[in-house]
Design a protein that fits this description.
Length: 414
């Protein structure tokens, strides 16, 4: 994976490659404690790491199982060989994942991954287990832009968190504040005071829950407050929120609901405030695509692998839309039956590839990740690429309805 300097955002392609590698590593399991993870932080002397691994190699000779002993020592030797390519760790450190995994019967195959993480590694780690140690890296995939969400009226409130493109509900509850009364005179005044007392307690409860949910939330960028009437403004203007949270309120927004759907409404209503947030950018791109698809004439849309690949190859694509959920490979094949040579799409890297001419099983000479292939093709043609997540409804639509590949064109097909 290309190195990324600390504090800089990963490119879409780096994010995709890193996430894909972690997904693959999560599926790998050894027969015993044969999978080795080594985390080398920046500033760590490579010679110190090599000496540590040599000591572990020596200690591994005490492993009783001959198969496990051989696998562990083989993995350590492989990492030692890879260390020779480093004079010093990269800016964010480097991680090695090496080990033997079953491939059927009594046979195994060695897997080897070398990753440069998007954020710096803080400590040196050596671990030998039945699976690779990935927890610190999975945390690095979390979007660091986080917003607190509050939707409120006198009858109900819902708190949520917008993390990157994903909205999660923290708490939804009713207020129990009476809304109407038919009493007159002093009874009416007394009842009105009781209503205001109940409302005040409700607002305090919302504020207390917001403190619990948001005050120590890492990466909190701001708080959005919404609702269908004047309650949201009263709640915000009366400083019920903790003073540190009050300073983070971006604005209040008019919306129609105060339940989970209201949280989605709030994010949409705040699109001007969150213009740089990926969620809104992705929504605009997919809505533009759908608008073009609906046109009877002059459509500037293409979708599906073959159509989009052709359009990209002839320089017709302005913006290429790729779903990060696509998991396919392009395989170069040679058919032993009819002699066909070319490329086909397969789902898994080790899937059988069939000849498109005679349907015989073909020999695979090379495979590449299909999303990486599209990135390279787009780069060669000066085409913008947008990697669309599957966290939003629009992102799911791109993956499920269009196969995860679509494009907005520079000019319509004649």
């Amino acid at each position: 994976m290309p190195e990324n300097k600390s504090g800089e955002s990963l490119s879409d392609r780096q994010k995709y490659d890193f996430k894909r590698d972690l997904e693959e590593l999560q599926t790998l399991h050894g027969r015993g404690t044969e999978l080795i993870s080594v985390y080398v932080p920046p500033g760590k002397q490579i010679s110190d790491v090599a000496n540590y691994l040599r000591e572990e190699f020596s200690q591994a000779s005490n492993i009783k199982s001959q198969g496990t002993r051989k696998a562990v020592q083989g993995a350590i030797q492989s990492i030692l060989a890879r260390l020779k390519y480093f004079k010093a760790p990269p800016t964010n450190g480097v991680i090695f994942f090496v080990g033997e995994i079953p491939k059927g019967g009594d046979q195994t195959r060695m897997v080897q991954y070398t990753l440069v993480p998007p954020d710096p590694i803080t400590t040196f780690l050596y671990r030998c287990d039945s699976e690779f140690y990935l927890e610190p890296l999975l945390d690095m995939l979390l979007d660091k832009k986080v917003y607190g969400l509050i939707v409120i009226d006198r009858s109900e409130a819902t708190l949520g968190i917008l993390r990157g493109k994903r909205i999660s509900v923290v708490r939804n509850f009713d207020s129990l504040v009476p809304s109407k009364h038919r009493m007159g005179g002093q009874s009416a005044q007394r009842f009105e005071r009781l209503i205001e007392i109940a409302a005040n307690e409700f607002y305090k409860k919302v504020a207390d829950l917001a403190t619990d949910a948001f005050l120590n939330l890492p990466g909190l960028q701001g708080i959005l407050v919404g609702g269908p009437g004047p309650t949201k403004n009263y709640f915000n203007d009366s400083n019920y929120l903790h003073h540190e949270l009050q300073k983070k309120v971006i604005d209040t927004y008019d919306i129609g609901y105060t339940d989970e759907y209201g949280l989605k409404e709030l994010v949409t209503a705040a699109k001007e405030s969150l213009m740089d947030l990926d969620l809104m950018r992705e929504k605009r791109l997919i809505l533009r695509l759908l608008e073009e698809i609906r046109k009877n004439e002059g459509s500037l849309a293409a979708y599906g692998e073959e159509e989009v690949r052709h359009a990209t190859e002839i320089g017709q694509v302005d913006t290429l839309l790729l779903s990060e959920g696509v998991r396919k490979h392009r395989a170069e094949i040679e058919c032993p039956s009819c002699g066909f040579k070319g490329k086909v799409t397969i789902v898994k890297e080790d899937d059988l590839a069939r000849c498109p001419k005679c349907d015989s099983v073909a020999n695979v000479t090379n495979t590449v990740d299909m999303v990486d292939e599209f990135f390279e093709l787009a780069e060669s043609m000066g085409t913008k690429v947008e990697l669309i997540s599957t966290d939003s409804e629009e992102g799911e639509m791109l993956l499920k309805a269009f196969g995860g590949i679509a494009a907005i064109l520079r000019f319509a097909t004649s």
